[in-house]
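Why do we care about 3D structure at all? Because function follows from shape, and shape follows, mostly, from sequence. That is the central idea of this module. The next example makes it concrete: a single protein chain, its amino acid sequence, and then its structure expressed as tokens.
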Amino acid sequence: MSEKRLLVLGTANRKKGQELADLFTPLGLDVRTLADFGPPAEVAEDGETFVENARLKASGYARALGRWVLADDSGLAVDILDGAPGVYSARYSGPGATDVLNNERLLGELADVPPERRSARFVCHMALSDPAGTIRAQSEGACRGRILRERRGGHGFGYDPLFEVVEYHRTFAELGPVVKAVLSHRARAATAIVPALVRLVDEEQWT
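And the structure:
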């Protein structure tokens, strides 16, 4: 990888973008986000699964930019809620959803649920598209934990303050970015897709 190849992350969320950039930059890639290319094109995230949405975003943004794009779709799946909020994680509280409102809704729905039944998992699916919009690689990662009754920690975003990794007795928001970069669903999905990124660059298919 003597020459840097440009990889665009299919997100305008700077916190998520930084997480991913920290994971992929060591590969020798020039990692950027949609925010580096002006207002992002509108790509409908109307898939019914994380897989479908990741593919839609990667392909749609790649065609719009004429660049290699890696997009992810991720969210929280709570077992007792039959996998909800799932693909609706970012907009769980409805129009105008924010992290605070989403967390409040989740806490409300689990108000009467005891600790032993508050198991959940974060799921992330990644898809890599070439500039023509063809999906060239995919991966998935997950991290299991449970939902607490109150927020803890000041790092991260989304549901991080409520999601406790049981083995560590800490939430994602308490663990901080260094540990999260190893344990998280997004980190695991990123690690799983690295061999495909390396192969595409080594085979000089990345133009």
